[in-house]
């Protein structure tokens, strides 16, 4: 069976399940759950996948709200390639699905169901895996999954992300690499009037840090970002503050550059401790690496989105690659492990961009769902091409193999 026939089967299967997809979409949107607490999302997604013939592993990779859904089931004899799709479904505190993860999950679910239908009817010697990936909003769920071996021996990984119409459709999206950390300086209290010399001022340490970072900004790259907030520095003016807490974010354009920027920031951290005599304690969150888009996958994705949604408009490849979004995602880490894409697609949200209440509302609209289903059809079609077209699969692998990923070997950036 040729690729167009397989894609037609996939498209039809997605259309036939559209009512169920819409129900899932709204159920996720109406029941937002924070990272690693996505129990409702985990249940409704795995229940539907299992009902459609997928072999479902719930609580996969020692993460209670992660899953792995495989089609055909793992007990079947399959020797061909395996394509994978990521579903995100965690929300943001207080503002719900303001990043549109309900749409990401819906698109991934549609893609998995469509590809599975084509695999079955077309008797394809290959597999599709739908990964449930919790805790993108700060918890690094995909990083834990990578370390547990989730993405080994796979031909590709696909996912999409909605953006407001202040942005653009972009198949070659690039993101920043970075991490957040919690900082605590520990000093020694003393009477600030009678014997200040007996104290070690933790507030001074965090003040020096904030000042040093401000000065450092003059000597860093335009694409570098260091932002922070001071959380606490004491409560009584007559007492030398014993403890000061802050939270900072350090980001740069690439993993290699992040390694340099992180060291500069660490120097500021340690200098403040040295200057004041405070003890320094830090707790780094997992680093989200920059996205390394696989061009052959992105090229085919554009083709299929325009085939499935005639309203989708893309700028030139050069213009898409020139954009650099200032957000980070743990999908970036996945792109270092196997050929992957993370395209962004526009939904109508004129009043607000991602991470706003206005975007939360936009993520529940019928129009956003229509655009999301088109993304699912496109991802299914790309996955099917990887499974059945040896030349295309080789091109995808060759582009990935040619990338310099050596920066990922440095433990300092883990």
Automatic annotation (TrEMBL):
Residue ranges the record marks as coiled coil: none
CDD domains linked: M20_ACY1L2-like (cd05672)
InterPro entries per UniProt: Amidohydrolase, Bact_exopeptidase_dim_dom, Peptidase_M20, Peptidase_M20/M20A_hydrolases, Peptidase_M20_dimer, Xaa-Arg_dipeptidase
Pfam family, one: Peptidase_M20
Location of the Peptidase M20 dimerisation domain: 182-274
Record-linked Gene3D superfamilies: 3.30.70.360, Zn peptidases
Domain of life from the UniProt record: Eukaryota
Family to which this protein belongs: Belongs to the peptidase M20A family.
NCBIfam families: amidohydrolases
Protein name: Peptidase M20 domain-containing protein 2
């Amino acid at each position: 069976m040729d690729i167009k026939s397989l894609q037609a089967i996939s498209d039809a299967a997605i259309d036939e399940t559209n009512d169920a997809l819409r129900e899932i979409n709204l159920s996720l949107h109406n029941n937002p759950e924070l990272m690693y607490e996505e129990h409702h999302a985990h249940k409704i997604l795995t229940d539907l996948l299992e009902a459609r013939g997928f072999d479902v592993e719930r609580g996969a990779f020692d993460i209670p709200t992660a899953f792995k859904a495989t089609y055909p089931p793992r007990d079947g004899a399959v020797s061909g390639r395996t394509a994978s799709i990521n579903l995100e479904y965690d929300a943001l505190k207080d503002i719900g699905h303001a990043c549109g993860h309900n749409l990401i999950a819906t698109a991934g679910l549609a893609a998995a169901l469509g590809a599975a239908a084509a695999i079955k009817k077309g008797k394809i010697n290959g597999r599709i895996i739908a990964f449930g990936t919790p805790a993108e909003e700060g918890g690094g769920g995909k990083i834990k999954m990578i370390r547990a071996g989730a993405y080994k021996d796979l031909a590709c990984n696909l996912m999409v992300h909605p953006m407001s119409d202040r942005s653009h459709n972009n198949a070659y999206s690039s993101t920043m690499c970075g991490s957040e950390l919690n900082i605590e300086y520990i000093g020694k209290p003393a009477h600030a009037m009678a014997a200040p010399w007996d104290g070690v001022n933790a507030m001074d340490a965090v003040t020096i840090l904030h000042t040093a970072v401000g000065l450092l900004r003059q000597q860093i790259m335009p694409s570098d970002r260091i932002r922070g907030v001071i959380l606490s520095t004491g409560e009584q003016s007559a007492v030398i503050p014993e403890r000061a807490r802050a939270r900072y974010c350090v980001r740069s354009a690439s993993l290699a550059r992040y390694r340099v920027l992180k060291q500069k920031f660490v120097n500021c951290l340690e200098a403040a401790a040295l200057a004041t005599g405070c003890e320094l304690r830090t707790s780094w969150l997992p680093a989200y690496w920059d996205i390394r888009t696989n061009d052959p996958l992105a090229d085919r994705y554009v083709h299929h989105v325009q085939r499935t949604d005639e309203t989708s408009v893309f700028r030139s490849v050069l213009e898409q690659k020139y954009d650099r979004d200032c957000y980070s995602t743990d999908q970036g880490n996945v792109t270092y492990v196997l050929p992957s894409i993370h395209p962004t697609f526009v939904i109508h949200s004129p009043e607000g961009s991602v991470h706003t209440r206005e975007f939360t509302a936009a993520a529940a609209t019928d129009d956003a769902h229509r655009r999301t289903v088109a993304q699912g059809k496109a991802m299914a079609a790309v996955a099917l091409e990887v499974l059945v077209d040896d030349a295309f699969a080789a091109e995808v692998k060759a582009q990935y193999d040619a990338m310099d990923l050596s920066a990922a070997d440095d433990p300092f950036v883990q």
